[in-house]
């Protein structure tokens, strides 16, 4: 079994890193929520006149949504990281080619970590850019491939499970 786990080691490490980062964010929120929110507010205040045109309602809306994105990052890192970890462990036990296990596991781990980081960065960038839409757009290069890796990795894991379960002995 050690040899099989080694085949999915990159995915396991990336998945665990994703989970750890999600837990760390939760701890940071518990310890420093006000400081984090103040940092977001300072970013918005720095561009109050140029980006927001002095519109307090627009600033508040962006800050509220930005904080939601930070919480979303925390949840996505933990949840998708856990899903990637479980799928990587499942792949380790399946009778599929080692390159397939290695590739799919790495896809899952990288996708989980990348997608969670996307939400974190979007939440941090939004106040300075003036909207969460602009923040998401500026990070499409990270969001789309990460989400794609998660989806494709899950589909390939499903294929591997089905192939292993219905393969003739």
Protein model, in words:
By secondary structure, this protein is an all-alpha fold. The chain has one domain: Four Helix Bundle (Hemerythrin (Met), subunit A), CATH 1.20.120. Helix content is 88%, strand content 0%. The protein contains six helices and no strands. The protein has helices at residues 2-7, 9-46, 56-93, 98-129, 132-138, 140-166. Helix 3 (56-93) runs antiparallel to helix 4 (98-129). The longest helix has 38 residues, at 9-46. The chain is elongated and about 70 Å long. The two termini are 21 Å apart.
Question: What's the short version?
Answer:
The protein is an all-alpha fold and 169 residues long. Helices cover 88% and strands 0% of the residues. It is elongated.
Percent strand equals under 5%
Rounded mean pLDDT is: 95
Extended strand count? 0
Going by helix content, strand content and strand pairing, the class is: mainly alpha
Look up the CATH topology: Four Helix Bundle (Hemerythrin (Met), subunit A)
**Proportion of helical residues:** over 70%
What form results from the Cα inertia axes? elongated
Number of helices: 6
What Rg, in angstroms, do the CA atoms define? 19 Å
- Classified by CATH, the class is Mainly Alpha
Q: Give a quick account of the main beta sheet: strands, pairing sense, barrel closure.
A: none
Q: Based on the structure given, which CATH architecture is correct?
A: Up-down Bundle
Compressed to H and E, one letter per element, the order equals: HHHHHH
User: How many domain regions?
Assistant: 1
Distance between the termini: 21 Å
Low-confidence stretches: none
């Amino acid at each position: 079994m050690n040899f099989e786990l080694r085949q999915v080691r990159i995915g396991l490490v990336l998945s665990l890193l994703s989970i750890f980062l999600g837990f760390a964010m939760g701890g940071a929120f518990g310890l420093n929520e006000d400081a984090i929110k103040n940092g977001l507010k300072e970013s918005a205040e720095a561009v109050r006149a140029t980006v927001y045109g002095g519109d307090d309602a627009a600033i508040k809306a962006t800050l509220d949504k930005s904080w939601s994105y930070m919480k979303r990052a925390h949840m996505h890192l933990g949840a998708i990281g856990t899903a990637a970890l479980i799928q990587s462990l499942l792949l380790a036990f399946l009778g599929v080619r080692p390159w397939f296990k290695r590739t799919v596991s790495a896809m899952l781990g990288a996708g989980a970590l990348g997608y969670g980081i996307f939400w974190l960065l979007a939440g941090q960038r939004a106040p300075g850019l003036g909207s969460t839409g602009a923040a998401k757009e500026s990070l499409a290069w990270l969001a789309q491939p990460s989400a794609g890796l998660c989806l494709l990795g899950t589909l390939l894991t499903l294929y591997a499970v089905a192939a292993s379960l219905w393969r003739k002995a």
